[in-house]
Design brief:
This protein is an all-alpha fold and 386 residues long. It has a single domain, classed as Formate dehydrogenase/DMSO reductase fold (Up-down Bundle), CATH 1.20.1630.10. 69% of the residues lie in helices and 0% in strands. The protein has 16 helices and no strands. Helix 3 runs parallel beside helix 16.
Length: 386
Amino acid sequence: MNFSKLPKLTFWRAVLVLILAAGFYSTVLRFTKGLGAATNLSDQFPWGLWIGFDVLCGVGLAAGGFTLAAIVYVFHIERFHPILRPSILTAFLGYALVAVALLYDLGKPYNIWHPLVMWNPHSVMFEVAWCVMLYLTVLALEFSPAVFERFHLRTPLRVIKASTIPLVITGVLLSTLHQSSLGSLFLIVPEKLHPYWYSPLLPLFFFISAVGVGMAMVIFESNLSSRAFSQEIEMPLLEVLGRAMAVVLAFYGLLRFEDLWSRGALVHLREPSAETVLFVLEITLGLLIPLPMLLFRRIREDRESLFGAAVLVITGFLLNRLNVSITGLVAASGAHYFPRWTEVAVTLSIVGVGFLLFSLAVRYLNVMEPVRAAPAPEKIPTRAAT
């Protein structure tokens, strides 16, 4: 056996191996002993980390796919095409891993196919399930050209390319529906969700924040990919995304604070509670710090500064989703919930698998387009002296 061909064991690869080992143990525990042995969930608090992070956060973080697809194919801004395929791949892996995460949280995971045949059109969860399934299919088709190119399958490649526009429009519509519908899930608990986060505008907040974090994720994965795979980074495109993200954040912030003011929810800031601390942290990290940063062109054009702003936006988004799904519901439930280490291990292993699959796809498929250099100016021929 030729050990020289084995991948070199680096620090991060060792960390990934440990995470996947812990996740494997937690998976075996979950599916052999049940939810009670692997989680701190209860009848009083049935939704925890696996719904709050793996599903609500996972779906939102994958929003860069439909955002970039709409920019390129609907609004015909073709210069963003070089970063479209990595965004589609990130979205596809995100949605696929969300489906895997649902298997852990469902009491009877073998019944996950029931929405296909047992229709309940009055249920928001039914609509979300169908939209996620359909959009995952759309993402697979949108990314399939990379696979067809790898195996030189010309006929299906032509068919998919001819169907690109209908696929993109379908994907944008499905994303709009289920990104907002995830917020609609919490409209049925007005007396249980803390006033910081309950609002009749939750569906709109969920959609707008998904668009903003989708742009942040494109900047985030572009930076990490360029470092990991020695690729040039499309800074002019990312600078424009940073400018657009500032507009989305400003709109989201104005709408959010107007809603808090109109509902009288800001009076709770006087209360020294865990909800207040986490609300202030969410707003500060996700809005008050990155928004002023993104307003300065010098920061948007600096790779590290723009990356830092994107990380802050992502962090604020994660806090918001966890606050809505966990923090804001704890007090009314009367139960104390903190995720067991096995819940954390499963979540980290799902994230680790996502990074691993992205790395393998970039290595073996045509995912990263080379940065195209600006065309050299044409030389004007001069007449020979007579």
